[in-house]
Amino acid sequence: MPSEKSTQSPQNQQDSDHNVEIITPLKVRSHSGQPGSSRPFRLTVMPILLLLTGLAVMAAGGFIFIRHLSKHPVNLTQDTDQTAPSEVAVQKKQIPDATRTTKLQIDPLTPSAPVTLDQQQTMEPQQTINPAKRALEKQKAEKLDAVNRLVESGKTHEKNDRFAFAHTDYQEALKLDPESKDAQKAVNRVKERIVGQQFQKLMSDGLTAYHDGRYQSARTQLLRAKSFRPDSREVQNALLQVDEAIRLAKIEKLRQKAMTAEQTEDWEKALRSYLAVLKIDPNISFAVQGKERALKQIQIGKRITFFLQKPDAMESNPQLQNAVLVIEEAESLQPRGPQLSKRLDKLKALVDAARTPVTVMIESDNLTEVAVYKVGKLGRFTTRELSLRPGSYTVVGSRDGYKDVRQKIIVKPRQKALRVTVICRNKV
Predict the structure, then answer these.
(1) What is the mean pLDDT of each run of 10 residues along the chain (428 residues)?
(2) What kind of architecture, by CATH, is found in domain 357-428?
(3) N or C, which end of the chain is more exposed by having fewer CB within 10 Å?
């Protein structure tokens, strides 16, 4: 029995690896032993060996299957790779091979994995896609590099206060990569710096023009500055100062224009200037006073013109009295220019002439009743002397049984003595 155990132990170890080789040594031993005792032993051992062989085959197949499925394969023996596997092992090995094929399809670039025909067919479209993907990634990398170069160039220009060049570089970078936050921030930052520069220059130019008295130019520059920063208090205050200066300059210009018109006694033009000033500011005192002065000059001037153009109007006492009043008002005017003085002298002469009576001699037959309109009835007389102011008069003669006579006489200023005859000669 000890010999059987020693013999069986190595045989079991060999059966686990190669069941075919186990039977041959047993046959050799049966011939070398004693004939009488070998047959019962053979009949007893053979079924056991066959059973053990089957179990060994099944165990080997199971371990092979587990080794291929496990991430850490189990190596049962070092001689397994040197011997051809059984049909059961081959069939069971197909399952992990399929798993390995699936893994290769997922990661075809694994260098240690064998590539089958199916795997090659699966890898062909992937190999076609990968170069395009690599080209796209290369293009993206080159674009990113170009964007970074432009951004760095823009920063250099920005440090040297060359904001226009910096803005150009940042804009080009933004065109290459519209999603670049650095480029977008840089564009906004430089744009604000450029706006700030332009704003300050326009403010400086506007204030310089303001101090030079070029108010319209100053206003133009400040309005352009306001277009960059509409809410700037600085530009708003400057515009208020410029607008006030423009307003005062316009008022002063109108004042000078009115004073010139007064000196030339063009009171209509002076009045227009004063009214324009009052339209700007109704509380300016010189314009209020100038308006009153101009209106009075215009009114008196028109009345003087009336009597100068129509001196006959002074034949009536009311109009003569009006002329006298005009003279009095004109003499109180200030200023009284040479033109007004000249016209006033003419009016005075006309008034004096209108006041100076002219001698009128009326002759009759002492039978005719004589009457003079504006004077009255004179009665019958042979000769009658009247002192009449210049003007037109109507002399009427009447006598019973005779036709009335009517005669109009005109007495001119400073005229020599006038002789008139009134006699009724025609009977009825």
Answers:
(1) 41 42 39 46 66 76 63 44 42 45 42 49 55 75 74 73 72 74 76 81 92 92 91 92 93 96 95 96 95 96 95 89 94 90 94 92 94 92 93 93 93 88 93
(2) Sandwich (2.60)
(3) N
CB 157 within 8 A of CB 151: no
**Cα–Cα distance, 170 to 188 (Å, whole number):** 9
Angle at 400 between CA 399 and CA 404, to 5 degrees: 45
What integer pLDDT is reported at residue 57 of this predicted model?
Answer: 72
Cα separation values, 381 from 17, 36, 146, 406, Å = 193, 225, 133, 17
C-alpha–C-alpha distance, residues 251 and 273, integer Å: 9
| Domain 124-231: CATH architecture, name and number where available | Alpha Horseshoe (1.25)
212-234 tens-digit pLDDT: 989 999 999 999 999 888 988 99
> What does residue 311 show for φ and ψ, rounded to 5 degrees?
-65, -25
* Contact call for residues 235 and 225 (beta carbons, < 8 A): yes
- Retrieve residue 50's tokens: 């066959």
| CA-based nearest residue to 304, from 290, 318, 322, 291 | 322
The domains of the chain are located at: 2-101, 124-231, 252-355, 357-428
Residues 6+ away with beta carbon under 8 Å from 102 = none
- Residue 53 has what pLDDT? 78
Q: Catalogue the long-range contacts made by 291-297 (C-beta closer than 8 Å, 24 or more residues apart).
A: 293/262, 294/258, 294/262, 294/267, 294/268, 294/270, 295/271, 296/333, 297/265, 297/267, 297/333, 297/340
Residue 77's pLDDT is 41
The single-letter code of the amino acid at 90 is V
Q: Are strands 358-363 and 418-421 parallel, antiparallel or unpaired?
A: parallel
Cα–Cα distances in angstroms (integers) from residue 403 to residues 105, 376, 381, 382, in the given order? 156, 20, 18, 19
The secondary structure element, H or E, covering residue 378 is strand 376-379
pLDDT at 55: 79
Q: Where are the alpha helices (DSSP H) in 160-265?
A: 163-176, 181-211, 215-228, 233-263
Q: How far is CA 282 from CA 81, 126, 267, in A?
A: 119, 90, 20
Structure tokens belonging to residue 222? 């400040």
